[in-house]
User: What shape does this take?
Amino acid sequence: MSLDSILAERYSRQTRVPGIGKAGQEKISNSRVVICGCGALGTVLANHLARAGVGFLRIVDRDFVEVSNLQRQVLFDESDVLSNMPKSVAAANKLRAVNSHITIEPIVADIDRTNILDLCRDVDLILDGTDNFEVRYLINDAAVSLGKPWVFGGAVGTEGQTMTIIPGETPCLRCVFEASPGPGEVGTCETAGVLGPAVAVVASLQAAEALKILAGKKEAINRELFTLDLWLNTPRRIKIARLLEKRNCPCCKQRKFEWLEGEHGTQTTSLCGRNAA
Assistant: This one.
């Protein structure tokens, strides 16, 4: 079989999905995505997008695989723990065995204001696989500054939330969450635990939004803040579209990129990963 025939068969079930088709799959295959963080959310995101045929995946994470990760971080196994493997490298190794027709670039680095623009400048979409709001505000600044769409997601305990952000078309993160939570105000997986299925649901919703954008179907994206508690069976959709006009957002309206410019110092005292690069 020719390579074109092999790829057509590989993605045949996806191209049959209304809204994707052959044209949408070609766009997905030619797209470039950066995943910021390769923990619980990031591994599910990377797994979905690699299997969907995203042409270029950049996976950025500073941590190494720990045994406590294996409960929910789907691309790692016990051998990665024993070999003290960086998460981004371990994820890339697994995904290259899944799909050898795409390019995967693992980067072992802490995402901060000195590198965020370089990590995001040459991609079509930014995905949030992080575990703290400081990096999310930094991603938001970078995305708005560069005019790049991004998909926010978070999961702690049994709860999760996600929101799709298209600069100029939807509210940005600071329109919805005006200020970053203070130290200790929100739980982490260290303090509140995390239910693996809650992570998988949130990341799958993020991945679906990513495929809509990459396939050129922005009209299909969710323009609300979606939250859920998987233990209490309580999904909730919060309308946020009006905030784009009602709020004089310092980021997307005034174009003050305070996190990108270093006006907000680091306040995080404990993240979910401890064995960091």
About this structure: DSSP finds twelve helices and eight strands in the chain. Residues 1-28 form one domain. The mean pLDDT is 92.
